[in-house]
Amino acid sequence: xxxxxxxxxxxxxxxxxxxxxxxxxxxxxxxxxxxxxxxxxxxxxxxxxxxxxxxxxxxxxxxxxxxxxxxxxxxxxxxxxxxxxxxxxxxxxxxxxxxxxxxxxxxxxxxxxxxxxxxxxxxxxxxxxxxxxxxxxxxxxxxxxxxxxxxxxxxxxxxxxxxxxxxxxxxxxxxxxxxxxxxxxxxxxxxxx
Length: 193
Known about the structure:
This protein is an alpha+beta fold and about 190 residues long. Helices cover about 60% and strands about 25% of the residues. It has 3 helices and 4 strands. The N and C termini lie far apart (about 120 Å).
């Protein structure tokens, strides 16, 4: 009986070792299978997902930049539409200069200033427009010169002061001023195109 008991206990021990070995073997195979599945299927999918996410972010950044560029272009277009009639070409360069000097003459003739010289500077030919420039030297009371500057800046046509120089004279409140005033006009469209 004791022998039979030993055999049963030994059988149980062997059986439990066998069961543990089976469980361990099943666990090992499962871990190996999971590792293989991860390396063969999941890891490449994760890498592909990461690459797609990065590409998607790059495309979003590019799209945002393009949207910003379009907004800027639309704003420039609307501003241009507002001032287009003011900068439209009136004809030849001589006609443009004549019109521009007349506009300036209207501005400073209303002031109590003496013009010493008026010099038409060469026309700057830019890609889409022409810049007309006139240099005016004058003298008068500082208040009148400042009023002239204000009237130039408030003028409805887009003219502006590019350079300004002022010197005092011996007479109180009298100054000598030198201006370079510019106006931008569009280039006439070619009839051939």
